[in-house]
UniProtKB/TrEMBL annotation:
Protein name stated in the entry: DUF2794 domain-containing protein
Pfam family, one: DUF2794
Amino acid sequence: MNYHVPPTSTLHQMPPSQVAFHRTELSVILSLYGRFVAAGEWRDYGISCLKDVAIFSVFRRTAETPLYRIEKRPKMRDKQGMYAVVGMDGQIIRRGHDLKKVLRVLERKLIRAVE
């Protein structure tokens, strides 16, 4: 009787690591998202957890390209900051080390003059 034992290197391999938003980060992002939904500006969102970046995409309508992308890139932590808000055209609107401060650029768009 022959037994085939798989190589040990494949048994204990870790799955490829992914970057993801932490619960506290999602809380801040979803709070802002909820205010924009209540104002009728945003309608849908998507979350992507990739190898180098986690992306929270915001849509006005489901079938469109995202209005904004909130990105978390841990490799940029020591440089310009790991959080960024990217516009529809791919231009980085704001980058920084503190998520709340980075998201302030979007909060300004929520404030409108009432007549």
